[in-house]
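Researcher: I need the complex structure. Ligand is iron/sulfur cluster. Inputs:
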Amino acid sequence: MREVVERPKKYITLTYGCQMNERDSETIAGLVERSGYQEASSLEDADLVIFNTCSVRHSAENKVYGKLGQLKRLKHEKPGLLVAFGGCMAQLEEVRNKLQNIGVVDVVFGTHSLHELPYLLEKAAAGLEKPVVDVWSEPGKVVEHLPARRRGGISAFVNIMFGCNNFCAYCIVPYTRGRERSRQPQDILVEVQQLVEQGIKEVTLLGQNVNSYGRGLEQKVDFADLLRMVNEVPGLSRIRFTTSHPRDMSDKLIHTIAASARVCEHIHAPLQAGSNRILRAMNRGYTREDYLELVAKMRATIPGVAITSDLIVGFPGETDEDFQDTLDMVEKVRFDAAFTFMFSPRSGTKAAEMKGQLPLEVKKERLLKLNEVQYGIALEANRRLEGQRVEVLVEGQSKTNPEKMTGRTRTNRIVVFNGDEQLVGKLVEVRILAAKTFTMFGEI
Ligand code: SF4
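Model: Output:
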């Protein structure tokens, strides 16, 4: 029988990976707080440690295993400590087998059974079975109205759909998050209205591929329709969304973004690679020519639109010519910013089985080269705004310059400027004085 803790039980959530995991961690916090837990100040202060994991790359997984090792020692000192393990890694059988051997975890919950967590914790606390495992291979219905402890601030994430049907050859997400399921537009609108009532000024609509929102819903609605509806919510200053699959970027959507005052002029449309041969091997469903045409259409229709991307180097079989094609596309498109990665084989994906896996040195070399080119382009794009006035939504105190405030432009650029806490949540006009690769500096 576990040691009884008189004071309120405390929990801590360790969140890894993407914005969807950050949003899930808000729900995890809401669920355990509703069953009496309070937030702990540290790992040592916690009675319950919850992992919300990411399996998109080896590095993400290694961090988690490292932390589990640390917890093994803590559990010797604190036998009553409960450890719950969730997120994308929990969906993978090979990971669950590893957890059995590590022997630290009391509860394993999958991405589709997150709402079961309080019940699973009770079972574990009763010591009925160890570990208590609840992982569904297929998602059930979208569970609405789950409690959430929001991370605060003036902006919030709103899931509009879950899962992905695209099966890009390198990606584990369709295996860990299941097939696409869209939320009902009414449920999304209610959530946005409630957030505005709580003081939120900006929402980011989240989905692995928001452009395919609405598929499978009885009601005939697509992402452009949803954007128009959210754009009508009074009291909202800004709407952002991520991620957009380039193949599903319709003219209707592009025109809706241009016509919707609150929708920010920033589109994150991952290109991933510049070679048609590699794009085919990745199963991305478009060519470099399609992508260039899309970029031209977006820039012609949405004045001043910022286009950002994800780029992978070192995909199996990538030749010097293929890599050169990626650099060439980066030079042609001139992304405002890009997240760049070395290919990381994920067991269970097609790409992990492919011939032509490249040595780490080659990947590192190509990543360095790509960053050099891309960062130069991003700096140039930021420098073009020097002397200009930009609208900034004030988010709070700058972490790097505590005496300054920070916020973002509509094109998702970070700006640091003079000001005080009273400006938080306000739209202010800032004149850009100096620009760097990732940050701009200005004055109100
Ligand atoms: S679109 Fe491709 S890369 Fe994005 S989540 Fe789906 S399978 Fe993964």
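Model: Summary of the prediction. The first helix runs from residue 19 to 34.
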